[in-house]
Specification:
By secondary structure, the chain is an all-alpha fold. Helix content is 80%, strand content 0%. It contains ten helices and no strands.
Length: 216
């Protein structure tokens, strides 16, 4: 794909998403929304198919990534190196929640769409992407098992906090985030001071199960 074509596709995707955000509160994240959004943007069905071959799932991914970019832009003036890790993650999650809340009516339907059983793998990937971006902003450079553990934990916090933000409000959501971060910090402190290594135990347990099933 040429640079001109890539630029067109990127701009057209955002235009399609803009129109979908107007429609999603009433129609949800559906094939109908994709069709109506394309028509409103002056696109043919073929152009829409080219841009979002997986329909509403691709639009849902575009919205998540827009919110990621919006959160990172809001964090652009925050000097993460001057903050403790607890404050870094708190500020990062707060920015991500606020980014999604700007499209609250559509985001509510987006969350319902991702909660459908068929869409849970997509929901997991998008939460992981968001967590990865926030950890990178926070300066995380871990390459061992902590790289995955940190992102998995933060993805869970983000998903739960988003649901609370949409149902109970910003204050309650941030209180939940503070409690969860406290739990994580206590766990990390315990890991640093104990001789027991949970990840080592899990690896040994997996090996034992493998030997039971397949033999040596």
């Amino acid at each position: 794909m040429t640079t001109a074509a890539q630029d067109w596709a990127a701009a057209a995707e955002q235009q399609l998403l803009d129109e979908a955000l107007k429609l999603a509160p009433a129609h949800g994240w559906t094939r109908r929304t994709v069709g109506l959004a394309a028509k409103a943007a002056g696109m043919s069905p073929a152009e829409a198919e080219l841009l979002v071959p997986h329909g509403a799932a691709d639009l849902a991914a575009l919205l998540s990534r827009r919110h990621d970019e919006r959160a990172l832009a809001a964090l652009g003036d925050v000097h993460a190196s001057n903050l403790k890790i607890r404050e870094k993650i708190r500020r990062a999650v707060e920015a991500r929640l606020d980014a999604a809340a700007r499209d609250e009516p559509a985001t509510r339907r987006w969350m319902g769409f991702l909660a459908l059983p068929a869409n849970l793998p997509l929901a997991g990937r998008l939460a992981w992407e968001s967590a990865d971006g926030l950890w990178r902003w926070a300066g995380d450079v871990a390459t061992d098992e902590n790289h995955y553990t940190k992102r998995a934990i933060l993805a869970g916090i983000l998903s739960s906090a988003m649901a609370i933000r949409m149902t109970q409000g910003r204050k309650v959501a941030l209180a939940f985030v503070d409690r969860r971060i406290d739990d994580v910090m206590r766990f990390e402190k315990w890991k640093a001071t104990t001789k027991l290594r949970p990840e080592q135990w899990l690896a040994e347990a997996a090996g034992a199960l493998g030997r039971v099933r397949y033999g040596r």
